[in-house]
Amino acid sequence: MERNIYSGTSDYMVSEDLRNAVNISIALGRPLLIKGEPGTGKTMLARSIALGLDMPFIIWNIKSTTKAQEGLYVYDTVQRLYDSQFGDRDVSDIKQYIRPGKVGEAFNSEKQVVLLIDEIDKADLEFPNDLLWELDVMNFFIPETGETISAKHRPAVVITSNAEKELPDAFLRRCIFHYISFPDEEMMESIVRVHYPNLESNLLAGALKAFYWVRSLPGLLKKPSTSELLDWVQALTVGGIHPDRIMSELPFLGVILKKNQDFEQVLRRIHSPGGLQRQAGLTGSRKYV
Predict the structure, then answer these.
(1) What is the pTM of this model?
(2) Angstrom distance (rounded) from CA 90 to CA 74
(3) Which residues pair with 76 in a beta bridge?
(4) Can you spell out the DSSP letters for 60-80?
(5) What is the DSSP string of 178-204?
(6) I want to staple 180 with a disulfide (CB 3.0 to 4.6 A). Which of 40, 103, 124, 230 is the partner?
(7) Using an 8 Å Cβ cutoff, are 157 and 115 in contact?
(8) DSSP symbol at 167
(9) What is the number of domains present in the chain?
């Protein structure tokens, strides 16, 4: 059977290694585990895979209280109790109170889907292990109704982690792993150009230098991410900011910094002797191209 090959999309650039990891995980039927700091495009990767391969997209956002069974199905006991007291339905038919979770939806889909399990490291340590069997065999049992739900098509599973906690070894062994590094300046310029193809070159060059200088400062509680850079260049454009002002003033700093301590640290640097340009090594004869 001929397989679709993922090669990226117009709004999402992928490296060769990442592209290979995606295609290998789909070919082997293994979950793709993506790690990386916030803002490196982990969630957007899953959307891009769905778009690039023309598959429906299902996202399961994981919280600290999320349990694995919620992804399989939910038994709505509250509605059944309500119906037994006030409704006119036959409450002995338990099947009508079973609602599929996100994994259940993916298994029931008439088409192969991309299933994103987003930020799995937010859940407790047992959560990944509790999903191992179902993701391996592609079915699960509902004891309340005595039926087994089997996947009509094996979903392309993408799992993201911000590396807030270590995942169990047994779970890691079943995944294809890829770490998305934060883009360097050259890659970031290409990313910004995808979203803003007509952006003035001088403004983009100044914004990138300022952005990476801010990220290089020690002790930041939250380094600005790609999405914040995209918002910032849009704000600079809308605000009509001249490129020369970017490194001397860092206009609209609140767009890229979201922690008060980080904001104050950068402001101190801006107003320190020598100014920001000298600290960042951008004094002298630098010309924008």
Answers:
(1) 0.82
(2) 19
(3) none
(4) EE--TT--HHHHHEEE-HHHH
(5) EE-PPP-HHHHHHHHHHH-TT--HHHH
(6) 40
(7) yes
(8) P
(9) 2
Mapped to the 3 state alphabet, what secondary structure does 106-128 carry?
Answer: HHHCCCCCEEEEECHHHCCCHHH
**Backbone angles phi and psi of 141, in degrees to 5:** -105, 135
Q: Kindly report the CA angle at 153 between 47 and 168, in degrees rounded to 5?
A: 70
Mean pLDDT of the chain: 89
**φ, ψ of residue 158 in degrees (nearest 5):** -115, 125
Q: Which two tokens stand for residue 72?
A: 């399989």
CATH of the domain at 88: 3.40.50.300
Query: Which residue, of 179, 201, 230, is where some domain finishes?
Result: 179
The b-or-e profile of 70-86 (16+ CB within 10 A means b, else e) is: bbbbebeeeebeebeee
pLDDT tens digit string along 121-156? 999 888 998 888 899 999 999 999 999 999 999 999
- Residue 147 sits in the same domain as residue 192: no
- What is the domain range of residue 46? 16-179
Confidence of residue 287 (pLDDT cuts 50, 70, 90): very low
Split at pLDDT 50, 70, 90, the class of 41 is: confident
Please tell me whether residues 199 and 71 are part of one structural domain.
no
Q: Is residue 175 within 8 Å of 21, Cβ to Cβ?
A: no
How far, in Å, are 41, 75, 185, 217, 254 from residue 191 at the CA level?
Answer: 11, 44, 10, 23, 22
Q: Which two tokens stand for residue 40?
A: 């490196």
Dig out the tokens for 15 from the structure: 């490296």
Are 269 and 256 spatial neighbours (Cβ–Cβ below 8 Å)?
no
Among candidate residues 176, 146, 147, 144, the one with its CA nearest the CA of residue 159: 176
